[in-house]
Amino acid sequence: MPDIRYVCLSDLHLGADNSLLTNLRPASTDVDITRPSPVLVQLVECLKTLISQNEDKRKPTLVLNGDVLELALATDNIAAMAFERFIELILPQNGDALVAKEILFLPGNHDHHLWESARETQYLKFISGKVPGTFLDIPWHTTKMFNPAPPIVGSFLTEIIRRYPHLQDVSAVTVYPNLGLLSLDEHRCVIFSHGHLTESIYRLMSTLRTMVFPVRAAPSAPWDFEAENFAWIDFLWSALGRSG
């Protein structure tokens, strides 16, 4: 079997009480974030078994493909602590790390707010190099699908990870909404995407805008859909639910 170079995990919904990867108290629906759920433990054990078959001892890259944290139906602290339990399993203090030090994170709809935070940080770094009074470009709504550089370190996930002394050199690099990887001969391609922008509910503002202004050109690219719908996605799936 070819070596595993990437491990892609999607829709963990860490922190949600209806996620099998969030630990619950016995005979209860109350979340217990002091320990990982049995399903999460077995998931990581399964990954260990698969990755241990690699002949090359390089660590595979972990791709967190959206809805890793549950920000719509859980508060930030619960989601963060559930993520800690996951990190402790894949990057243990006593034992071999399961994945490489650079983690790739593609925000989904339930953790979309982390993209907003990342792109605002990126924009601040961009304008810090501009002379006051010069024209400022509009903030980016997406990253490049191929070779997204410079990397955007997602501060929320990265800072949670780096709270552990042995993980000071680990980072979660944010890309959005798609990431493409080419084979060395460039004859094959794999695209990672959470896919929410392909669903009509996440393009609702574009649909309404076209209904009101039917003569306008409808959006066709991810940037355009994100630019018209990012506030809607962020509001309903990252902010409103946390307000109760």
Keywords:
alpha/beta; 244 residues; two-stranded antiparallel ribbon; 6 helices; 33% helix; five-stranded mixed beta sheet
Note down, in words, how this protein is organized.
The chain has 244 residues and is α/β, with parallel strands linked by helices. Helix content is 33%, strand content 11%. The protein contains 6 helices and 7 strands. It has helices at residues 38-51, 76-90, 113-128, 155-161, 204-212, 222-240; strands at residues 6-9, 61-64, 102-105, 152-153, 171-174, 178-182, 189-193. The strands form 2 sheets. Strands 1-2-3-5-4 form a 5-stranded mixed β-sheet, covered by helices on one side. A two-stranded antiparallel ribbon has the order 6-7. The protein is globular, with a radius of gyration of 19 Å. The model has no long low-confidence stretch (mean pLDDT 94).
SS-based class:
alpha/beta
What is the oligomeric state here? Answer: single chain
Low-confidence stretches: none
**What's the pLDDT, averaged over the residues?**
94
Biggest sheet strand order reads 1-2-3-5-4
- Per DSSP, the total helix count is 6
Quick one: how many beta strands? 7
Largest sheet: 5 strands, mixed
Write the layout of secondary structure elements.
Layout: E1 6-9, H1 38-51, E2 61-64, H2 76-90, E3 102-105, H3 113-128, E4 152-153, H4 155-161, E5 171-174, E6 178-182, E7 189-193, H5 204-212, H6 222-240
Parallel strand pairs: 1-2, 2-3, 3-5
Antiparallel strand pairs: 4-5, 6-7
Q: How would you summarize this macromolecular structure in one to three sentences?
A:
The protein has 244 residues and is an alpha/beta fold.
